What does this fold into?
Amino acid sequence: MIEYIHKLGKPLPYGSYGLGSSGHLQMEIFGRNARVALTHVPYKGEGPLLNDLLGGQLPAGIVAAVSARQHARTGKLRAIAVAGQGRSPLLPDVPTFLEAGVPGLGRQGWLGLFAPAATPRAVIDKVSADVNRVLASPELRARMVQLGILVKGSSPAAFADVVKAEQTYWAEALRASNIRLD
It folds into this structure.
């Protein structure tokens, strides 16, 4: 893809599921770290983006592994790389960006449980323990992998550290990409 963009001689249009989305920022990081010119085409969600990718109106885009998997299996899309620290269980034959020679894309989406700031500590600890117990279920873990979600339990303190680190990382990504979210 990097060679193709260089040969193209102009910025490669790519789609993301929204202005300022993690996909948008990841592609900007890719462009910077791979030293290629890109032009962002923001979509209002992944559905319209996938339609244009499948229809050939857009040469590249960043979508969730669970969305790409079915189209990659049929040969309608070509999965080039995945973001994250390791390969996706949904696309095990697709290298990470780092494996493909482009560093800086070790982040991937995550889900977390939040509560109002005034929630009593005992309630937070009880909910955390209950959620971690449920997340340990082999059946739930298997179903979540099918949906493209890797399950990882945590403690409230460890999750707070993740949130702080993510805020710092994404704020820097926005600054470095000169993206304005007005």
